């Protein structure tokens, strides 16, 4: 098994930075699905529609500067592809993938069922360049009893063998309020996938994180990680079968992906994962960010089973706030710390469940230093 955890990552500055801040030992056991932005806005880096522009090449290089060459990554180009005109779609996307691969990166295109239905399968086959594809099926797709029959037919027409390709079961739009019911649905989807074909990997992804900040100003809130609980209940059925079935989520965020102008001023807050919940601590909304974030950090340090400073840059960030040795950061850095801490925690959690050891070196450099901020 080449990876044990798959976070879906947005094209926001803090999330690309989070990948760069991960310890190498964590990078070695995850495979991110990087959801690329279509254009300028809060997306970073912006991908230009003009395939002849040097900007496409430069932004491909910038995007990939956050990830080690030897580790495969998935490029989800749904938003990019839909924003391109048919006349330059193939040229622009081939430029992006070719540039990434020219530096030795292993890039896997993600295609959804809707794109196959629109006749774009041959394009994605070209983008795969002889390597694997990842097919993403949504919860709505999985509710249709004819979906896997359609998948089998369309992959056969493309001369694509599932055994050399990957499958994502994306439950991002699902209701996780009832863990038992959702676990049953996930289990059924995995069984259907296994009955249809042998896949290189099958990855579940989902999120129960709320769209709105669950904490009141100056207070904290605990949010159950129901996607992890539902996954655990469903995956127990397949333990010991030898199937490559992977857990994934949307990091420390909800699954409603939007690109465009920002949604307003960000509240100073941090969201930390624990075994079965997130703890969200929010600033008061009054006074300087330094004061608010120091209060947030002090409250967060008393939560759950956090191992404290040294596990990752996120914990060191909190430690610096508590001790007065680090800066308060900004919204981009808060997002980066949330995601870095979450990915590290979940990767180690999955490794423990699988009997795998991940050595995470103690890191004491401040993540607010310029050398650690994505530019």
Features:
TIM Barrel, 15% strand, 39% helix, 8-stranded parallel beta barrel, alpha/beta, disordered C terminus, 375 residues
Helix fraction bin: 25-40%
| SSE topology string | EHHEHEHHEHHEHHEHEEHEEEHHH
Please, how many helices? Answer: 14
Shape: globular
CATH class of the domain at 5-212 and 222-259: Alpha Beta
Structural class: alpha/beta
What is Rg?
20 Å
The share of residues in extended strands comes to 5-15%
The CATH topology of the domain at 5-212 and 222-259 corresponds to: TIM Barrel
The CATH H-level superfamily of the domain at 5-212 and 222-259 is Alanine racemase
Q: Largest beta sheet, briefly?
A: 8 strands, parallel, barrel
How many strand segments? 11
**Span from first to last CA?**
33 Å
What is the second-level CATH architecture of the domain at 5-212 and 222-259?
Answer: Alpha-Beta Barrel
Spans where pLDDT lies below 50 across 5 or more residues: 51-55, 368-375
User: How are strands sequenced across the largest beta sheet?
Assistant: 1-2-3-4-5-6-7-9
Mean pLDDT over all positions: 86
